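Quarterly update from the structural biology core.
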Amino acid sequence: MPSLPSVTGTQAIRAFSKAGFSVARIKGSHHIMSKPGHPHVVSVPVHGNAPLKSGTLRSLVRDAGLTVEGFIALLS
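Predicted structure, tokenized:
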């Protein structure tokens, strides 16, 4: 399993958008993303240019129904 790269919340939002998610609402610094027909929402914290912690990012990728390889491909 490849390791996750260091990404910011904004970069993660762009990648999830490519996977079909869209920002449903924003509460504070958390962008709540949803996808039609997908049972889970993805709550991406955006704290400036601070990178997401690896465990948080891995959980977001899992909740989105993606693999790590698939998420890395969406980053480019």
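The mean pLDDT is 95.
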